[in-house]
Amino acid sequence: MLITEKIISVAHYVDQLVLWVLIILSILSVGMILERFFALRKVSAESAKVRARIKLALQGNSVEDFETIAKDLNSLEGRAAHYALRHIKDSGTKGLEEVFNTYTLTERPDLERFLNFLATIGSNAPYIGLFGTVLGIMKAFNDLAQASDAGQQTVMAGIALALVATAAGLFVAIPAVIFYNYYNKQVKSILQSLDSVKELGLAYAKKKGL
To answer: Does 29 map to a domain?
Structure first.
């Protein structure tokens, strides 16, 4: 009984704290969503151009276009091709695939920045909100039990306030999940473009007889 009373006494303060936590998470989530939007928009646009070049190179059976891609240092794929072409000229094809793989590994963390945090917010914010709701309901029924003149309106008002935490949790989680999925798809597309450049580079090296 003593433990239950302590939990109820804590609930009088923690339910409001939960709302503040959700507000802070919401602000952080919006900031990360905007940062990723501007960061990935340019990279995705450049990747789309490179994919179009690779498609044309394959259609025309012209792997020499790899040299043209290597001159485009504004894109991740262009820089990867540039480093690979330099490696081919210096050392041939030995270790070429490793050069591409290493480049991808070094760029991937920047592409996926904040995505894990967005995923964490999206999966846990509803539970944080539900926790706040449970505490709020406990508080409402405890107030009803202690106030002899309290009626149905008292407990209903308390429950209504408690449900705000659940709504807030969903409000934070839904955008985080939507944009996580959207940005994750963009990152996968960019990484696939890097793989395409790698394969084109290997084909280029083989055709040159290196």
So the answer is: yes
Confidence (pTM): 0.83
Domain enclosing residue 38, as ranges: 9-207
User: How buried is residue 96: exposed, middle or buried, by Cβ count under 10 Å (0-12/13-18/19+)?
Assistant: buried
- Could you read off the pLDDT of 81-121 as tens digits, one per residue? 888 888 888 877 788 888 889 999 999 999 999 999 999 99
- Asked if the structure places residue 4 within a domain, the reply is no
Do the beta carbons of residue 177 and residue 115 sit within 8 Å?
no
Answer whether residue 172 is part of any domain: yes
Q: Total structural domains in the chain?
A: 1
DSSP structural state of residue 151: -
Residue 10, classified by CB atoms within 10 Å of its CB into exposed (0-12), middle (13-18) or buried (19+), is middle
